[in-house]
Amino acid sequence: MKLVALVGSLQKESKSTKGLRVAAEAARQAGAEVIEWSLREQPLPIYDPESEKSGENVEAFIKAMSEADGFLIASPEYHNGPSGVLKNALDFVGYNQFAGKPVGLVAAAGGPIATNTLGQLATILRSLHGYVIPQQGSIGYGDAFNEDGSFQNPKMQERFEKIGTDVVALVKGLRG
């Protein structure tokens, strides 16, 4: 089973990336191969629907998303919504990549919670026929991480690990 962990932040060590990595490690421990796609490390051009879906990183991105059995997606919250770079990346893919596949969502806010971003991402991914799992992760400005990348708050650690394991469990369940 293969999952793509899509990092929708351009910051080197963003909280959304750290939270996503907690979920991704739990998914690995549950038996998934997790491929991290960082839009900082592997950027995509601005999506143009009249242009061919080719160019630097575009074909590899579409291939990785197409081959995935499920997804973990993270975004910082900018102006009460997902990052532009993440929305741009999602414009390159569609039903062919997401239909019938589980998706776990993580977001980090500059304030206490990132529910607007999580809600908007859930709407986008449901419109692509992805199965957004109920457990979502919101990282607030007060949440902190240990040096090893785990959350300082054990309840947050458990919540984000559950996102990873729930995606794996749903992939297995859908496979029969």
TrEMBL record:
<comment type="similarity">
    <text>Belongs to the azoreductase type 2 family.</text>
</comment>
<dbReference type="GO" id="GO:0005829">
    <property type="term" value="C:cytosol"/>
</dbReference>
<dbReference type="InterPro" id="IPR050712">
    <property type="entry name" value="NAD(P)H-dep_reductase"/>
</dbReference>
<feature type="domain" description="NADPH-dependent FMN reductase-like">
    <location>
        <begin position="1"/>
        <end position="140"/>
    </location>
</feature>
<dbReference type="InterPro" id="IPR005025">
    <property type="entry name" value="FMN_Rdtase-like_dom"/>
</dbReference>
<dbReference type="GO" id="GO:0016491">
    <property type="term" value="F:oxidoreductase activity"/>
</dbReference>
<dbReference type="Pfam" id="PF03358">
    <property type="entry name" value="FMN_red"/>
</dbReference>
<dbReference type="InterPro" id="IPR029039">
    <property type="entry name" value="Flavoprotein-like_sf"/>
</dbReference>
<dbReference type="GO" id="GO:0010181">
    <property type="term" value="F:FMN binding"/>
</dbReference>
<protein>
    <submittedName>
        <fullName>NAD(P)H-dependent FMN reductase</fullName>
    </submittedName>
</protein>
